[in-house]
Design brief:
The complex is a heterodimer of chains A (about 240) and B (about 260). With about 240 residues, chain A is an alpha+beta fold. Chain A is built from 3 helices and 19 strands. In chain A, the strands form 7 sheets. A 6-stranded antiparallel β-sheet of chain A has the order 15-16-6-5-14-17, with no helix packed on it. With about 260 residues, chain B is an alpha+beta fold. The chains are: A alpha+beta (about 240), B alpha+beta (about 260).
Chain lengths: ~240, ~260
């Protein structure tokens, strides 16, 4: 069979995979603190029979696959809620959260106070401060730009904000949590906390729609190519040619 | 491809729940003492096709993994604890709480319910009850002959009886507050019940050091629903629903194209 058939087939599979990522971005367009993901397409050179092969041979065996999805860490839009326990980060930092599966990081700052007075995320995991978990005193607390919590004029704690080196590969864990390899998180420097504000997801609906249309149309072209191979060429080879006697 | 269909469906379901919640907030925008709720969404689990940081070769690691997210879900609805506007009614038995406290009322099943709706009336025996007939706790009885009822900001209820010049104290309204009022259980009729998430109530007289707030007589607290915010959220929910349905359509058309291939 023509190798182009497999190239088109691979590309079609890649577009369907790309659609999954786009669908997830759009589904999470209203998830506070969600970071969108972008597909990375890359070429894979299939093994040719004679090692390096000719230029033509390389070109027709150069398959396109989705090799990864990169996390878009750009700032999401800030939405004013007025709720004193809604915290948004302006900058690159993440909140640190103590979960049953270890320390996770999140940009979703819609926090609450547990029945025991601990500052917790909406999934119930304690938010980490500079000295372990944070206990909130009754009454209004104000939280300054560097994460310092004060209640009635007295400082009661400080929210831990961490940054990651650019090379860190954050892994999505669901529930707006991300995990990082141990030991890479550093104290955040340039980020600011805003009280009474939530950060929306950074999904760009226009970009997502364009990605969606591109994936769909490009899948259509691959389908066209596939049907060309099967109807025009292979059919001719298997049904028309043998008739000539 | 089949992920995309289910992922988009999860987004549509989530926006449907969002719209349900917005509808309830808007429907209750004239309910005194109503506290708006807000739906919080979280992303679902991820399928790891390729782990971030996995070894690509012996010397290098892949720059970013291939994680396919499986959509979104409505995680919880949080009660917004912002103070609602106070409106003056002139009715001496309308009380508004300026602060974080709740009135305690006795429910028919002898449980204590908590409410911020402070529109009370005397029942046949003169006991102050809510519009649903639940008695304020601790019970306060207004004598039938009372000509004037005064409630201080600290909750002291005093009445003037005919032929007397000095007001007479008939009780003190106590308020309850919770460590996590967002974790209370709404049961309708403006009533909340305590849960393990909300913690146990701290009960005290208004105006004290517990931060329960003060009582304003002749005022009612309006719902803390912000109509403009709700409308913006409604537009967001609708458009987000549309974009998710667009994904369903795209996935469907790609599948259709595939099926035509096999003809």
């Amino acid at each position: 069979m023509d190798s182009g058939y497999y190239a088109a087939c691979t590309a079609l599979a890649a577009r369907t995979q790309a659609l999954d990522t786009i669908a997830n971005n759009l589904a999470n367009a209203n998830t506070a603190g969600y970071r969108s993901e972008h597909n990375i397409f890359s070429a894979v050179l299939a093994n040719t029979q004679n090692g390096s092969g000719s230029n033509l041979n390389n070109a027709i065996n150069n398959y396109g696959i989705v090799s990864g999805a990169s996390l878009d860490l750009s700032q999401g839009a800030l939405q004013k809620t007025g709720n004193p326990l809604d915290l948004a980060i302006q900058g690159t930092a993440f909140f640190a959260v103590q979960t049953p599966n270890g320390v996770m990081y999140t940009r979703n700052g819609s926090f609450q106070v547990s029945s025991t007075g601990q500052l917790i995320t909406s999934t119930g995991d304690p938010v980490m401060g500079d000295k372990g978990t944070i206990t909130m005193l009754p009454g209004e607390s104000s939280i300054s730009a560097d994460g310092t919590i004060s209640s009635n004029g007295a400082i009661t704690g400080k929210i831990r904000l961490v940054d990651f080196p650019a090379s860190t590969q954050l892994q999505s864990e669901g529930s707006s949590y991300y995990s990082a390899p141990p030991g890479v998180a550093t104290q955040a420097i340039d980020s600011k906390v805003q009280q009474g504000t939530l950060e929306n997801s950074n999904v760009n609906p226009i970009l997502s729609m364009v990605e969606l249309i591109t994936a769909q149309r490009s899948a259509e072209s691959m389908q066209k190519a596939l049907s060309m191979f099967s109807s025009e060429m292979d059919k001719t080879a298997t049904q028309e040619l043998p008739k000539i006697s | 491809m089949f992920h995309a269909l289910y992922t988009a469906a999860s987004g549509m379901t989530a926006q449907q729940i969002n719209l349900d919640n917005i509808a309830n907030n808007l429907a209750n925008s004239s309910t005194s003492g109503f506290q708006a709720r807000r739906v919080q969404f979280t992303d679902l689990l991820y399928q790891n096709e390729k782990m971030p940081g996995a070894a690509a070769t012996q010397q290098t690691t892949v720059a970013s993994g291939l994680q396919i997210g499986l959509g979104t879900t409505a995680g919880n609805t949080e009660i917004i604890q912002l103070q609602g506007d106070l409106s003056s009614t002139g009715n001496p038995l309308d009380f508004a709480i300026q602060g974080t406290g709740f009135f305690q009322v006795l429910l028919p099943n002898n449980q204590i319910g908590y409410t911020r709706a402070g529109s009370f009336q005397p029942d046949a025996q003169g006991v102050l009850v809510t519009a649903n007939g639940n008695a304020l706790q601790p019970a306060i009885t207004i004598p039938a002959s009372a000509t004037n009822v005064t409630v201080g900001s600290d909750g002291t209820v005093s009445v003037t009886l005919p032929g007397q010049t000095n007001a007479q104290q008939v009780g003190v309204i106590q308020l309850a507050s919770f460590t996590n009022p967002g974790g209370l259980n709404s049961v309708g009729n403006n009533i909340y019940l305590q849960t393990t998430a909300s913690g146990n109530p701290v009960v005290g007289a208004p105006g004290g050091s517990e931060g329960l707030g003060t009582i304003q007589q002749g005022m009612l607290e309006q719902a803390n629903v912000n109509i403009v915010d709700e409308f913006v959220n409604m537009i967001m929910a609708q458009r987000s629903y549309e974009s998710n349905s667009r994904v369903v359509k795209a996935a469907d058309e790609m599948l259709q194209g595939l099926n035509q291939l096999a003809q």
